[in-house]
Design goal:
This protein is α+β, with helices and mostly antiparallel strands. It has ten helices and eleven strands. The strands form five sheets. Strands 6-7-8 form a three-stranded antiparallel β-sheet. It has a two-stranded antiparallel ribbon with strand order 1-2. Strands 3-4 form a two-stranded antiparallel ribbon. A hairpin with a 6-residue loop joins strand 3 and strand 4. Helix 2 packs antiparallel against helix 4 and helix 6 runs antiparallel to helix 7. The longest helix is centred in the first third of the chain and has 16 residues. The protein is globular, with a radius of gyration of 23 Å. The two termini are 35 Å apart.
Length: 272
């Protein structure tokens, strides 16, 4: 049976929260250093030339988001957490560079559950299960020579075989969704998924200043492998990012294992 007094008190609390009343608790905030330093966003983006972004500490609201089954099933749960903690609501999660999203996720995890993240992995040599941990406060950003990146955020690479000059962009969440959309469409029609080709199509902005989509698609499909490998190596070396790698000696066979720290729901639920 509903209690009218409880309902009225809830309504009063909600009204105070909406009006910024004195009894409203505001969670603390923190600044997160961005691997991109804001140098790879267009001028109209809220993070243009900003080397950090303000987020609030995770609260029970974000924990509810992490438990939302529809978000989990759709694969958008971590994006919804980031959306919730961002102070500047002009920033759209899908417009964030992947490296900056990673930095925000690490900061969220640290302020919610602490800086030590424990996880398990399987040894590549003997297949034994191992437990290890990383200190999130010690995670570094990749060293990037931003002087080699154009003022508009473009990355320029000259290919060794075709001598073509490729202008490329750094991918955002929107770009990743577009890639997955095209791959799913191909799969639906029983066509080869061509994930690498679709990724190149999204990365390439122009070739020798030619921005025609049909020309770019044709070039990507017929690009010599040596050009492809050269581009990806040069492009990757210029990408900002978070060094989320680990190195650990297997407790069973003593071989050294190297890999990437797993980031998923378990990253935010260490007890589960």
């Amino acid at each position: 049976m509903n209690n009218p007094q409880i309902d009225e008190s809830l309504l009063r609390a909600m009204a105070q929260a909406q009006s910024g009343g004195a009894n409203v608790y505001t969670p603390p905030t923190m600044l997160v250093d961005l691997p991109s330093r804001g140098l790879l966003y267009p001028e109209q983006h809220p993070l243009y030339n900003k080397d950090s972004v303000e987020i609030k500490y995770m609260t029970t609201k974000e924990e509810d988001i992490l438990l939302n089954q529809s978000y989990i099933q759709s694969g958008e749960v971590l994006d919804r957490v980031i959306e919730s903690v961002l102070i500047d609501k002009r920033i759209k999660v899908d417009s964030l560079l992947n490296s900056d999203k990673s930095a925000i996720q690490i900061a969220c995890r640290s302020n919610a559950y602490g800086e030590i993240f424990e996880f398990s992995y399987v040894c590549e040599k003997c297949q034994a299960s191992n437990d290890t941990s990383v200190n999130l406060s010690e995670v570094k950003h990749y060293e990037v020579d931003f002087d080699k990146i154009r003022q508009d955020g473009g990355i320029v690479v000259e290919l060794p075989i075709t001598k073509a000059v490729v202008k490329a962009k750094v991918l955002t969440g929107d770009d990743e969704k577009e890639i997955q959309k095209r791959v799913k469409q191909k799969k639906k029609h029983n066509l080869p998924e061509e994930l690498l080709i679709e990724r190149y199509r999204q990365i390439f902005v122009s070739i020798n200043d030619n921005e025609d989509p049909l020309f770019l698609a044709n070039f990507v499909k017929n690009m010599p492998l040596r050009d492809s490998r050269h581009f990806m190596k040069s492009y990757s070396n210029l990408l900002p990012g978070v060094d989320f790698s680990f190195e650990h000696e297997c407790s069973n066979c003593e071989s050294i294992n190297k890999g990437g720290v797993p980031v998923g729901l378990s990253f935010f639920y260490p007890e589960q």
